[in-house]
Amino acid sequence: MDNRIEKHIELKAPVSRVWRALTDYRQFGEWFRVNLEGPFVPGETARGYITWPGYEHLFMEVIVQKLEPEHLFSFTWHPYAIDPKVDYSKETPTLVEFKLAKTATGTELTVTESGFEHIPRERFADAFRMNDSGWTQQLKNIETYVAQAL
C-alpha cells in the first residue's frame, strides 16, 4: 500500500499567480474553501472553519513548514480529521507540499502528501482515500481560480 499521494497539474497561469493563490491566506481560502483567520507564517499554525458545503462545522488547522517564494509551500496537518469526538493531536500529522515549476505555457503544480504510514490503522484507509480524491478536487479548484483575472 502506498503511503503518499502525489498529484500534478499544469496551470495556464504564471508561477507568480499560482504562488499568490497558494500562499495568500485569503486566496487560498477561496479555492480551498476554508475561512482562515490569518496569514501563513513558517512555524505557526493557520486555522479556520471549512466552507465546503456539508463540512462547515469542521475546523482546519495546519502548521506551516516552509515558504520558499515561488517554489515550495508546505504544511503539516491531520488528514481527514472529521470526528469531533477524536483527539487527533496525539497522531503524527502528514506533510503536504506544493511545488511549483515554470513551464512553456504556465506552471506545473505538484501536490504531495506524505506520512500516511503514521496514521492509525483504523483511520488509514479512509484518510488516504478521502485525501486522494480531495486533492484531485482541490487541483480542479485552483485551476479554475487562477484562470480568473484578478
From TrEMBL:
Entry superkingdom: Bacteria
Domain Activator of Hsp90 ATPase homologue 1/2-like C-terminal: 12-146
InterPro entries on file: ASHA1/2-like_C, START-like_dom_sf
Similarity comment: family membership: Belongs to the AHA1 family.
Record's protein name: Activator of Hsp90 ATPase 1 family protein
Organism per entry: Granulicella mallensis (strain ATCC BAA-1857 / DSM 23137 / MP5ACTX8)
